[in-house]
Amino acid sequence: MCAMEPTEAQLVEMFRRMVRIREFDERAGLLLERAIVPGAVHLYVGEEAVAVGVCAQLNDDDYITSTHRGHGHLIAKGGDLGKMFAEIYGKATGYCHGKGGSMHMADQSLGILGANGIVGAGGPIAAGAGYTCKFRKQGQVTVCFFGDGAAAEGSMHEAGNLAAVLNLPVIFVCENNLYGEFAHVDEHHAISDIADMATGWGMAGAVVDGMDVLAVFEAAGEAIARARRGEGPTLLECKTYRFYDHLGRDYGLTKRPEDEIAHWKARDPIARLGTALAERSLISAADQDRIVEETRAEIEAAIAFAQESPEPAPSALLEDVYVPEPAGTTNG
Amino acid sequence: MPEKLFSQGIVEAQAHEMRTDPTIFVAGEDIELGGVFATAKGLREEFGSRVFNTPIAEAAMTGLAIGAAATGMRPIVEIMFMDFMTVAMDQVVNQMAKMRYMFGGETRLPLVLITHAGAGHQNAAQHSQSLEAWFCHVPGLKVVWPSDPYDGKGLMIAAIRDDNPVIYITNKLALGTRADVPDDAYTVPIGKAAVKREGEDVTVVAVGAMVPEAIKAADAVAERGLSVEVVDPRTLSPLDTDTIVRSVRKTGRAIVAHEAVQFCGYGAEVAAQIAQHAFDALDAPVLRVGAPFSPVPFNPNLEKAWLPGAEEIIASIEQLIPTGARA
To answer: pTM of this prediction?
Structure first.
């Protein structure tokens, strides 16, 4: 799956997955606002083209590391919506049996090594998974999703350097959504393109329009193909935008400029692909609406599953700290 | 049984496991040369690219182990000085220790981080610390600290075979000591303490470098007719509380000795476990031997004054059983 031109089936599937992410996180944001789900939820709305364009080039046995804003990565790589919502609800049927929550979901069977509550922590782990890919010599790759904020963390620079030194098949995908938590990227970085860090890491780097899934698909395809051929890591910086706040839809701490929000919403990646698909007579506007409706039904079913699912048993508290649990001897 | 260097036993343990399991690799700073403490000596020659140098980047090296372990490898990564673990703390504490639990039991991280602790070689404050208590405080990690070459080899094999992340600590100065070590592969079970010397009057629970010091102290007070039992936890987490409690119930007195700074050190936990499980058997308060509350000084005389050892253990024994008194 490394052709630079997506097939018709891939185009349709990419549209579906972007819609799935959008609808999932719109609902997750509402559930958080209404205090129906506990904890914190970081919404991927607006950034869908990045996860979907990259993951459309991956196989199930390729690996990804994700971030605190990770729902989009999971869904793009094929994550189960019911298990995801159940986890956000903290239920026993969730991806982590209710012990991880929104920020800590993983699915080993899909190569999703885990979302992460620590900014920049996925870089070193991705390098490790990349080492496994290199060791196996089966053309597998690892994608490390990280944000513009994480690009200021030392761990990312250690990981980038290590991946280049060891020539690992890792693609570092920076989702530059213009904000690290609540502060503008200009306050975090003295350079304007994070892709320039690739020079210091000793690897290829490129700036990509992160609101255009086809551009992401193409750039990721080239980088992944290189990695599969044993030609080492790449840094892709996808310029994108977070339609909502750092946390939830509106955390209320600060406001971003209205004209900035309007500028980026005018480049909505789903509408953009939708227009292209209609122009190419691949999916009509009416069929696109139908896909949205189908997705909403899928989301409602996933939420119903989460709501009906049981709470974790009290005994789960001390389960899965170790493998297997030490017999008799526990610290307590 | 052939006599071998402590470090050689650790090399043999890794080599033995690597011969049968191709997923094991050894990485670290200058590890191709055998590592600065020779615990990987000769492995590059036998195993080629499975033993490789990394940049000086402890967070990335630790993440390398985590990501590789999560995807099916069994990495052994050396963090040269235990002081350098501080640079990798997020990867160790927030990632390695928690991934299994917070991802719902799906993830397995069969990896070993080997690191070298202890003062006494005039390397001052940033190359001499014993930080074991930090890691024992984190659920999800196993922490082992062998005190002699036999346990060194057996615990390394056990650590490699364990499906959990194991922090394997050595005392740098002990790596140059020799003892009988079998040629074959054997394990010392993780989670089992050892009674290194049997005695009747007082129990000394000693960690790492303090085990041989406790035995020296036991020899010294034996001339007074005192009989000291030395218990080496070997695995600091999960702790074999039973063996310690059994010993204290027999002797009625306990001292906990480690090289690390005493305040909030590992000894505090052991003392609390003894108080909780053997209070009725105690004839005296539990005493602790540990370093004073300062960084490790460079000057050799100051460093000597900082380092706890047999002398301090003897003083604690004297405090519990004053000369003239009988046990």
So the answer is: 0.96
